[in-house]
Design a protein that fits this description.
six-stranded mixed beta sheet, alpha/beta
Length: about 350
């Protein structure tokens, strides 16, 4: 057993390449195709690993449209190219729908969810597994920080998305992923007066990260205008002391971010620059039917990757900083780091970023 443990520790955790990526573009979107054409040679994704869909660019679709226009065609791309085992990461591009409409409700009952999270189950579906639509599915890779991600050990695809407000934001995200280095600070901003799981996870992340690279704040102060940021986690617009939409950070190439916000991936449509967080009662100033912060703001400001949710995920299903950030700091790639910290699939999560982005070893 000791020898096995030593061997597992010597297995490279981020050795995957473009051959392990299925790159998915929407044939009806010039932006989607532009992103795929730009990304593919930079990561040496084989031409046969590019999957073109014919679907709407609407952000919300029905379950029937998801199956007909996305799930079944992506499955055919994987099966026809004999890629089911080799592909570990599915990379969606801009103008592929975000949300699947359906009934809301509890984590056991809701049918609405993200396209990305639903596609993680496609590996098992191609092997004949069936899933009920309502509720979530436990992520078998959650918390498995010492294990290499491979099939069939972990029978899922890790789905990320190269998408943001516009082409410049997406190009910047891709370019920064190629320039990522293991340096900089991890900024963890707790909200006061709350002894709850989110704050516990943020404190645990601070303990697990290199102590000389961590900034933690538990006061009423919000950590704005930080320099040399490589990782960030906070309550975002759910911190009542957060009054500024823009953090003013200097983000390093490869920086990732996560916030405990229910609907921060509800849209990739860019609000006016002077739009800011408001309240649910302020109906005149909601953006995409919500007053809450937006994940794409983090990318626009300079982050390389970030996670968010299309509908209410409940705190327990948000990406966990105590799992995501230490894995990333130790050299895991972006996709594996985020999915190590996402407890549930077939749910609300979206991960923006190049799955192969890695800081390398410290």
């Amino acid at each position: 057993m000791r020898l096995l443990a030593i061997l597992l520790l010597t297995i490279p955790l981020s050795a995957q390449t473009g051959e392990n990526v299925l790159l998915v573009a929407n044939r009806s979107s010039a932006l989607s195709k532009q992103i795929a054409d730009y990304y593919r040679p930079l990561r040496a994704v084989p031409a046969e690993n590019v999957c073109y869909l014919d679907t709407t660019s609407d952000e919300e679709i029905s379950w029937t449209t998801f199956q007909k226009d996305i799930e079944i065609p992506v499955g055919k791309c994987l099966s026809n190219g004999d890629l089911r085992e080799k592909v570990l990461y599915i990379v969606l591009t801009a103008d592929i729908p975000l949300r699947i409409a359906g009934s809301g409700g509890s984590i056991e009952e809701a049918e609405q969810g993200s396209v990305d999270s639903e596609l993680t189950l496609l590996y098992q579906k191609l092997k004949g597994s069936k899933f009920i639509r309502k509720g979530m599915v436990a992520n078998p890779f959650f918390g498995k920080g010492d294990a290499p991600f491979r099939h069939p050990n972990y029978p899922i695809y890790l789905v990320t998305r190269l998408a943001a407000y516009d082409w410049n934001d997406v190009k910047g995200m891709i370019d920064r992923s190629l320039a990522a280095r293991n340096r900089g600070k991890f900024v963890l901003d707790l909200r006061t007066g709350q002894d709850e799981p989110g704050n516990v996870w943020l404190r645990s992340a601070a303990i697990l990260l290199p102590p000389d690279r961590v900034i933690v704040d538990e006061s009423t102060r919000v950590l704005y205008d930080q320099k040399d940021v490589i990782g960030f986690a906070s309550w975002g617009s759910n911190d009542r002391n957060r009054t500024r939409r823009w953090l003013g950070f200097q983000w390093l190439p490869g920086a990732i971010a996560l916030e405990f916000v229910s609907t921060n991936m509800r849209t990739l449509k860019r609000p006016p620059d002077n739009w800011t967080y408001t309240t649910w009662d302020d109906h005149a100033h909601l953006w995409a039917d919500s007053p809450q912060g937006l994940t794409a703001d983090l990318i626009h400001e300079g982050a390389t990757g970030a996670s968010g949710n299309v509908f209410e995920p409940y705190l327990v299903a948000c990406a966990r900083p105590d799992k995501v950030l230490p894995a990333y700091a130790e050299g895991r790639n972006l996709a594996e780091s985020f999915y190590l910290g996402i407890a549930y699939l077939s749910w609300q999560g979206v991960v923006l970023g190049d799955p192969l982005c890695s800081l390398g070893k410290p």
